[in-house]
Design a protein that fits this description.
Chain lengths: 169, 103
């Protein structure tokens, strides 16, 4: 069994995702939780690069790791000024969450491993940027101008809503 | 050895259920939001992996993941605006104290 550097990279990414996503929900301190979420998002971008979807990986890095995490860190710092205490530990809630998560994960992993997905194709090359751009800006079949415009309206509504909700009265 | 498609799906499943565990157990609103973020991210991985391994000639999963990233960014921004507004009103963002907003 030969392990190449390609596979080592994949297993490092997998270990970072699994370890940091479990740590992000088990640590009691909220700022550490956000930091572990940042590592999970970085490793997810790494998975996208690994699958040679570089554009999606770049979007993940800029929008998630660059934008959302900054938003989280600032809102954590804004809202935890006077309650610096660690969250209390509730045994009943802990067991409910643990049982739900473990049972669900066991069922889903079992189904995923035993299900046959049919023929899978080997990893192809990079998706060219010109093809992505034409598909994003076209109005024909399998082209995505309408969702693009809809999401721009959604973002505009979010800007207006965010300002309206969060401004000082 | 070969990296099969199931490996990616197992990773994203573990990430999804870590998010569900956090959603049930955490009581800080921002921690709940972080758990939701984990769940959304794991589903994005699934879209991309199905697109890459089962239908490499098409781009539906790719674009769905792209738009899902945008939608979840918008959702996070509005949720954080709401949380900051709640904090401004009742000086607390623990979930069990939020019923004070009724009175």
């Amino acid at each position: 069994m030969q392990i190449t550097i390609h596979e080592i990279v994949f297993f490092i990414l997998a270990a970072v995702i699994i370890g940091c996503s479990v740590l992000a929900v088990t640590t009691r301190r909220i700022l550490r939780s956000a930091t572990y979420l940042l590592f999970v998002l970085f490793a997810t971008a790494g998975i996208y690069f690994y699958l040679s979807y570089s554009f999606l990986g770049a979007v993940q890095l800029t929008v998630y790791a660059g934008g959302i995490i900054v938003l989280y860190v600032f809102s954590i710092l804004l809202t935890s000024a006077d309650n610096r205490r660690v969250e209390k530990f509730l045994l009943g809630r802990f067991f409910a969450g643990l049982v739900a998560a473990l049972a669900g994960a066991a069922i889903c992993v079992y189904l995923t491993v035993t299900h046959s997905f049919g023929p899978t194709y080997p990893l192809g090359g990079e998706l060219p940027m010109s093809i992505i751009g034409e598909a994003l800006m076209g109005t024909g079949k399998y082209q995505y101008l309408l969702p693009f415009e809809v999401i721009s309206i959604l973002l505009l509504a979010c800007i207006v809503g965010g300002i309206l909700i969060a401004r000082k009265r | 050895m070969e990296i099969k498609m199931e490996y990616y799906l197992v990773i994203s499943t573990i990430m999804l259920f870590a998010g569900i565990y956090g959603f049930i157990t955490r009581r800080n609103l921002l921690a709940v939001l972080i758990s939701v973020e984990l769940m959304l991210n794991s589903v994005d991985i699934n879209f991309v992996v199905f697109n890459r391994f089962l239908f490499p000639g098409e781009m539906e999963g790719f674009f769905f993941a792209l738009f899902a990233i945008g939608v979840s960014a918008a959702e996070t921004a509005v949720a954080i605006a709401i949380i900051i507004n709640i904090y401004r009103n009742i000086r607390d963002i623990q979930v069990r104290h939020l019923d004070r907003m009724k009175h």
